[in-house]
Task: structure prediction
Amino acid sequence: MHFKKVGKSYWNKYIDGIIDCRKKNLYGYSDKDSDFSGHIGVGETWGYAMGYYMLNKKYSTSKNPSESYWFKPRQTKSLFDDDKITPLQFLSCMDNSVKDLQSLNTILSSKYNNVPKNLY
Result:
């Protein structure tokens, strides 16, 4: 869904960031691991949050991603769980201007009043 919305160039940065981090044995530790870690954070917060959200819907569970991830998927998932916004509303904010969690948070909180300005 996100690829279709933002296109190949956005995802090339995401993939370049993953390759860069893997070469350095750093993937997943920080938003400073690569020049494109911000893109990774946006993709991972969405992916993890949606994975747990859909798991819980399908199997009637209440599992959550770890709080230790720097890309904060638990905070993203809480937006859906607490009915602050829907996953589709979240996705609508993930456009080409979103380069990291801070820019994502800016768009989310400006578009939806019930999203905290300090989500990430």
